[in-house]
Design brief:
four-stranded antiparallel β-sheet, carbohydrate binding, Cohesin_dom, transmembrane helix, eight-stranded mixed β-sheet, Immunoglobulin-like, 2 helices, Membrane protein containing Cellulosome anchoring protein, cohesin region domain protein, CBM2/CBM3_carb-bd_dom_sf
Length: 198
């Protein structure tokens, strides 16, 4: 019986090492390029903001390629510029087809592992009021093209096929517009009270 227990424990350990637990990739945005990750940002119509896109929790031996689509609300945001991070990704580029931006990049070994790996930068301009969500997807939504690939060929795309909600951009009205609206409402209420009293 003791021998069976030892064999069972050994088998469990071997199978456990053959299929290590892998944590999901973590994606973050740095609005305003201030080295702080945010998932919410406010813009007034006409204002712009530059956003750096990062990936963390990348296992060894590291990434040798990346690719994703960033989807936004075209009725509220407009892309000014977009580019991959050329320090980390020697090959690749950006394709912008409203309402999404596709970024792809590759590099030779060594791979990039760990946290805070910059993927690219996008500059948005606020064109209308409202809330726009920013979503990150696998570039071909689960198709045959491998985007996030580690040295040795392990593909991590299944983690983002269904999409990752990265942030909300709240496009707020310009304060002077609110002031004008507030003044109009106060005047309207004042006239209404005079009519009721008189």
């Amino acid at each position: 019986m003791k021998r069976l227990l030892v064999v069972a424990v050994a088998l469990f350990m071997v199978l456990g090492l053959a299929n290590p637990v892998r944590a999901d990739l973590v994606f973050n945005l740095d609005f305003g390029q201030d080295s702080n990750y945010e998932n919410y940002w406010e813009l007034n119509p006409g204002e712009t903001v530059s956003i750096d896109i990062y990936v963390s929790n990348v296992p060894d031996p590291g990434l040798i390629s990346m690719g994703f689509d960033l989807v936004y609300d075209q009725t509220q945001l407009e892309v000014v510029t977009a580019d991959i991070d050329s320090t980390n990704w020697y090959m690749g580029g950006v394709q912008h087809t409203t309402p999404e931006i596709e970024m792809k990049g590759g590099r030779v070994e060594p791979g990039l592992s760990g946290d805070n790996i910059k993927l690219g930068t996008i500059e948005f301009k606020c064109v209308a009021m409202g809330i726009s969500e920013l979503w990150l997807y696998d570039s071909d939504r689960g198709g045959n093209y491998d985007d996030f690939v580690l040295v040795g060929g392990t593909v991590l795309d299944e983690q983002i096929v269904s999409g990752v909600n990265l942030a909300e951009v709240n496009n707020v009205p310009i304060p002077s517009t609110l002031l004008l609206l507030g003044t109009g409402l106060i005047s309207f209420l004042g006239l209404s009270r005079r009519r009721i009293a008189g």
